[in-house]
TrEMBL record:
<keyword id="KW-0418">Kinase</keyword>
<dbReference type="Pfam" id="PF00989">
    <property type="entry name" value="PAS"/>
</dbReference>
<dbReference type="InterPro" id="IPR013655">
    <property type="entry name" value="PAS_fold_3"/>
</dbReference>
<feature type="domain" description="PAC">
    <location>
        <begin position="219"/>
        <end position="269"/>
    </location>
</feature>
<dbReference type="InterPro" id="IPR001610">
    <property type="entry name" value="PAC"/>
</dbReference>
<feature type="modified residue" description="4-aspartylphosphate">
    <location>
        <position position="58"/>
    </location>
</feature>
<dbReference type="InterPro" id="IPR011006">
    <property type="entry name" value="CheY-like_superfamily"/>
</dbReference>
<dbReference type="InterPro" id="IPR001789">
    <property type="entry name" value="Sig_transdc_resp-reg_receiver"/>
</dbReference>
<keyword id="KW-0808">Transferase</keyword>
<dbReference type="InterPro" id="IPR035965">
    <property type="entry name" value="PAS-like_dom_sf"/>
</dbReference>
<feature type="domain" description="PAS">
    <location>
        <begin position="303"/>
        <end position="350"/>
    </location>
</feature>
<protein>
    <recommendedName>
        <fullName>histidine kinase</fullName>
        <ecNumber>2.7.13.3</ecNumber>
    </recommendedName>
</protein>
<dbReference type="InterPro" id="IPR000014">
    <property type="entry name" value="PAS"/>
</dbReference>
<keyword id="KW-0597">Phosphoprotein</keyword>
<dbReference type="Pfam" id="PF00072">
    <property type="entry name" value="Response_reg"/>
</dbReference>
<dbReference type="InterPro" id="IPR000700">
    <property type="entry name" value="PAS-assoc_C"/>
</dbReference>
<feature type="domain" description="PAC">
    <location>
        <begin position="481"/>
        <end position="527"/>
    </location>
</feature>
Length: 527
């Protein structure tokens, strides 16, 4: 759309240079981009190579008749407004030019204000014509895209009129029901349905004609379709309706759900086996599938929650509806994003779904649960179902938290005592922990001891090394290790150490750790 005169290009065609240049100067002063030519041949050449918003044309040209130039310009671009500006005043020329499509007919000498006003109207009309052409082109493209989408859709699409006669269908619909693409148009919808549905179909059409209401519009339903060879198959149908000048029409999107039904049956059998396997256990079961045309995360997505699962949260059978929202509304706010990301990663990418999160119970408290699940996809890779288990792990989480708190208390204690607390495996091949006091007493970094577990022994005075090494090997595991020895620090100073150790047993009564406490008693030995 033209927004200012600076966006407009005007072509002046006149054999009189004085008039042409005067007119060019006038229009350029008004902000137009103006070009001037003196012959019809030049005008036609210019308009072939360049775009103009309007042409001001003199009929009396030296080479071509002005009306023939007008006719040629109209053929090249019917939306290009041509203003006739000429000294000819006879009515035949005026009418002839206007009949051939001239936008306006002005005579010389011209009125500047009239010319300006006429040119503004011409440019505006041309902009509207261009816009209309663009809109028409976009509409045609949109219709072509729509037809291409309908024809390339994997789902079957059937359009019928209010009498129940098929108006059109896409390739997928024809193939689904076993017909050629042109075989279904003009035939009744009843050819696509088993006989048991036809009475209800006729009653529904009659009700729609009389009341304008339908029980099936806007909600997906599961039915059976009838192929050309008489075979039946399960399908899912979504109906829509609209009214146009041609009457009322219906469109049905039909999806063959044979594979989904097989998957559902396989899952049902699997669920029965699982139910038998976990009967009496502390596991809850869940099983959901998305509605057609809706994301799986919709609040009303159907999900079956087993009685045991509901009981784990403290709810009775009727207190926990079988929809996704029953679960999502009880997810801890801090866990919701993580859980949905895990579900999406499994559904869209097949990543294993095994997560732990908190759910609010009927008593209002949050408890920890572990959920595992497996999605099912049809033969075309579309997500159709997901089932899994829910297990309460609150006691384990509490124990883990208690352990973390205990370890933190131990760490705070160990890191603030003056003695060196150390922890190793029974074989002395790994130092599992050494407190910061090691760096103060030994004068060496804790990192060096982790990297080389025997480096503490290298610091022992040569006269004490043999005795201490023997004691470490034979007395630490039995719990009789209590040795006093000297160490030589990197600065050459000597410190006296009392080192004690005791074994730590696992549940089987076997030693799996050795803990010790090394104390600097140098000052005490000098007293």
């Amino acid at each position: 759309m033209i927004t200012s005169t600076s966006d407009c290009s005007i072509l002046i065609v006149d054999d009189d240079p004085d008039i042409g240049f005067t007119l060019q100067e006038l229009l350029e002063h008004d902000g137009y981009k103006v070009e001037f030519v003196g012959t019809g041949t030049e005008a036609l050449s210019q308009t072939q190579d360049r775009h103009y918003n309007a042409v001001i044309l003199d009929l009396g040209l030296p080479d071509l008749d002005g009306l023939s130039v007008l006719e040629s310009l109209q053929r090249m671009d019917p939306t290009l407004p041509v203003i006739i500006l000429t000294a000819f005043t006879n009515s035949e020329r005026t009418i002839g030019s206007l009949m051939q499509g001239a936008f306006a007919y002005l005579t010389k000498p011209y009125n500047r204000d009239e010319l300006r006003a006429t040119l503004r109207r011409a440019v505006g009309v041309q902009a509207l014509a261009v816009k209309a052409r663009q809109v028409e082109h976009a509409l045609n493209e949109s219709e072509e895209r729509f037809r291409a989408i309908v024809q390339s859709a994997s789902d079957a699409i059937v359009v019928a009129d209010q009498e129940g006669m098929i108006v059109s269908c896409n390739k997928s619909a024809a193939e689904l029901f076993g017909y050629g693409e042109a075989d279904l148009a003009g035939r009744p919808l009843t050819v696509l349905m088993p006989a048991r549905y036809r009475d209800a179909h006729a009653a529904g059409l009659l009700r729609l004609q009389q009341t304008g209401q339908s029980r099936l519009i806007g909600r997906p339903i599961e039915l059976h379709g009838l192929k050309r060879d008489g075979a039946e198959f399960p399908l899912e149908l979504s109906l829509a309706t609209w009214t146009s000048a041609g009457g009322r029409f219906f469109s049905g999107i039909i999806r063959d759900i044979t594979e989904r039904k097989r998957a559902e049956e396989a899952l049902r059998i699997s669920e029965e086996r699982l139910e038998l396997a976990i009967n009496g256990s502390n596991l809850g079961l869940w099983d959901g599938h998305p509605r057609p045309g809706q994301p799986w995360s919709s609040p009303d997505t159907p999900v079956w929650w087993s009685p045991r699962l509901k009981a784990l949260l403290g709810y009775g059978e009727q207190e926990f509806p079988d929809v996704l929202e029953s679960w999502t509304s009880r997810l801890h706010p801090d866990d919701k994003e993580m859980v949905f990301e895990a579900l999406s990663a499994h559904i869209n990418g097949g990543r294993p779904y095994d997560v732990e999160y908190r759910l609010r119970t009927k008593r209002g408290e949050y408890r920890w649960f572990r959920s595992r699940g497996q999605a099912i996809w049809d033969s075309q890779g579309r997500f159709v179902r997901m089932a899994g288990t829910l297990q309460c792990v609150n006691d384990r989480k509490r124990a883990e938290e208690a352990l973390r708190e205990s370890e933190e208390m131990f760490r705070q204690l160990a890191e603030h005592i003056r003695e060196v607390f150390w922890l190793s495996d029974p074989e002395k091949t790994r130092i599992l922990y050494v407190s910061p006091a090691y760096e103060t007493i030994w004068g060496r970094s804790c990192g060096s001891l982790y990297a080389y577990p025997g480096s503490w022994m290298d610091s022992i005075h040569p006269d004490d090394q043999s005795r201490v090494r023997e004691a470490a090997l034979t007395k630490q595991v039995p719990g009789r290790y209590d040795e006093t020895y000297r160490i030589i620090r990197p600065d050459g100073s000597i410190r006296v150490i009392r080192d004690r150790a005791f074994p730590i047993l696992n549940r089987d009564g076997r030693v799996y750790r050795v803990a010790g406490l090394a104390e600097d008693i140098t000052e005490r030995t000098r007293e």
